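Help wanted!
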Amino acid sequence: MANIQEVAQKAGVSVATVSRVLNQHPTVTAKTRLKVETAIEELNYEPSMLGRNLRNSESRLLLVLIPSISNPFYTEIINGIEDTAITNGYNILLCDTDSNPQREHIYFNMVKNKLADGIISMDPAVDMEKLNGLAMQYPIIQCSEYDEKGTIPYVTIDNQLAAYRAVKHLIKLGHKKIALINSDERFLYARERRAGYEQALREFNLPIQEKWIYHTNHLEFEFGQQAMRKLLQTDEKPTAVFSVSDTLAIGALKEINAHELNVPEDIALVGFDKISFSNMTNPTLTTVSQPMYKMGCTAADMLIKKIHNKDVESVILDHELVIRESTMG
Amino acid sequence: MANIQEVAQKAGVSVATVSRVLNQHPTVTAKTRLKVETAIEELNYEPSMLGRNLRNSESRLLLVLIPSISNPFYTEIINGIEDTAITNGYNILLCDTDSNPQREHIYFNMVKNKLADGIISMDPAVDMEKLNGLAMQYPIIQCSEYDEKGTIPYVTIDNQLAAYRAVKHLIKLGHKKIALINSDERFLYARERRAGYEQALREFNLPIQEKWIYHTNHLEFEFGQQAMRKLLQTDEKPTAVFSVSDTLAIGALKEINAHELNVPEDIALVGFDKISFSNMTNPTLTTVSQPMYKMGCTAADMLIKKIHNKDVESVILDHELVIRESTMG
DNA sequence: ATTCGTGATGTAATCGATTACAATAATTTT
DNA sequence: AAAATTATTGTAATCGATTACATCACGAAT
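Answered by r_m:
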C-alpha cells in the first residue's frame, strides 16, 4: 500500500499538495490536481485512516454495543442506526459485549483512543458507573435500556405503560389469573414492565401473586420453556401469561403445546418486541411493537449531534399493542 | 486523556521508559517501574491504540463480514469466532455489509489501513474479485461461502452431500414429488445444494421437474411463504419440500398450515442450518446441522495463523441430518 | 586507580497523515 | 519595468506511540 510520500514523489509535488487534493482544498491548480490524481490512480493509493485519525482525532466510526447478536430484537434497531449513520457519512461497528465487562472495556477504550467517535449502548448489563464516567468526556447515547439516575441521553419507550396495556388487554378478555415471565430485575426495563403488570392488576383489584411471577436470567427460548414448565406446576394454573420478551413467550408457547394445552383457549399469551418470528408461530403471537427502526435512527441522530457538540434531549417513542391469534378466543 | 509524554514527565523519566513499562520489557528497574506505574495510575492514562497501531502496523482487531445481522445462521459462528479471537488476544468487529459493495469497500479499507489485522468473510454476495485481490496482500479467510476458483482459504461443509442426504431421507420415506426451495444460484452453496438435490433424485430415477424448483433472492420468512404459495399452486402438488434454509422452511410451514394442510402428513419438510427457531416450530423442523460454533473457531484460528504468516489449508467440516417431527409420519 | 563490562535509561527517528507558516510564482498596479 | 498583491506550492511541526542506538552509572577485574 503506497503512502502519501510516494504519491507526492510520483506526482512531483509535496505531500502537502497531495493532502490538499485529497481534502478538496480549492487552492490547487487544475493541472497539479490532475497530476496528483493520476499518481493516486497509478499507485492505487488510499489514504491511511490511522495517520489521518491520529492527526484529526476523528474516525467517523460509531460503536454499537449489543449484549448478544443472537437476540433478534436488535436487528431492526441496528438497521436504523446504520442507515442514519451512513447518510451522515459515518460507519458503524457492531460490538458483541456478551455483557462482559472486559470486552466492554476494550470498546470503551476504542473511543478514548479516537478509534471511534462515539457509542450507542444497548446493553442492559453495561457497567452504568463506567458508562456515565465515560459520557462526561465522550459522546454516548443509550438506546432502549438506560440509567434513570444517569445523565446520558437515551431513546426508549414507556415500558411501564406498554406492559400495563398488554396486561389490561388480557384482563379485558376476562382473565383473572395472569402470570408474568420477567427477566432479571437488575434491568430497568424489567422493573418497569413488572410495574406495569402490577398497575393493571391493582387497577382491576386482582391480587398480585408471587407464584405467578417468574424470573429468568436469560432470554433464549429454552428459558421460556422452563418458565412455563414451572408456572404449569403451580397449584392454580394461570389462564394467561405476559412475557417480557417474544423469545421467552415462544418458548412458553412450545411448552404449553407440549402439555397438550391450547393457546389461546387454555392459556392466552402476550409477548414483547414483535420480532419477525412472532408472526410465524402457530398461533401467531400477540405482542408489543416497539418502533425499532425509528429508535435506531433516533439514537444515531442523537449521537451524531452529540459528536458535533450539540445538545440532545432524551426521547420516548410510541409503542403499540399488536393483537394476534394468541389472545383471540 | 493523558498521553505518554505527560506520564513520562510526571514520573520523571523518558517516554521510552514509559513505553518499556507498558510493554513489560525486563530491563526496567523495579523502582522506576513503580514510579511509572503510579504516574499512569494518577493520570488515569491508557495508551492510544492509534499511535501504537501506526507504529506497529498491528491492531489486534479482526473484521467479520456478514451480509445481514438478522440471519440467525450467523450467531453461533460468530460466538465461535469471538471466543477463539479473545483466547488469542484479538477482538472482533462485526460488519453488516448488507451485501452492499460500498460498505464492503469501507471495511476492506480498514484492513488496508491497518485499522484491522484481517477479515473473515461470510457474505455470499461479496465481490469475489476484489476479495481475491485483497487476499494477495492481507490475511483473509472465507467462512461457509467461498470462491471455488479463488485461492482464499475457507472453512465450510460439503453442501452437495448434505443436500443429497436430506433429499435421500425424503425419498426413503416414500416421497416421489419433492420440491426444492432454493436461494439465488449466483451463490455457490445454492448451486451445490441443488446439485445434491438432483443427485438424489437421479439416483432413484425420479424426474427433475422445473415446476418444483423455486428460487428466491431473500432468506426472510415471507419469502418462504411466497415460495410455498407458488408450489401449492402447481397442477401437481409436491408431497415433500427441501428448503436450503430454515428461515425459508419456517415460512413454508406457515403457508402450508394456512392452507389447512398438515406437516408431515400432507407435506414433509426439511430445512437447513438448524437455527434455534427450528426447534420451536410445531412440528419441529427436520434440518441439516452445520457445526457452526466449530466453524467459527476454525475460521478464527485460520485467520490468526494467516496473520502470523503461517500456511493454512481449507477445511471441510462434518454436517448432520437432524430428523425431527416435520418428516416423522 | 584505571579500565572494562553490564545494565538501565535517554535521545531521536519513525509510522502516515494534516496544516500553519514560509516561500515562491504569477498577476496586477502604478 | 519595478513594486505590490495574490495565488500556489513547499517546509516542517504535529498527533502518540515504539525502538535502534547512544549514553551514563556503577561495580568488577586488573
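OP: Thanks! One thing I noticed: Residues 13-17, 20, 27-29, 32, 51, 53-57, 113-114 of chain B lie near DNA strand C (CB under 10 Å from a C1').
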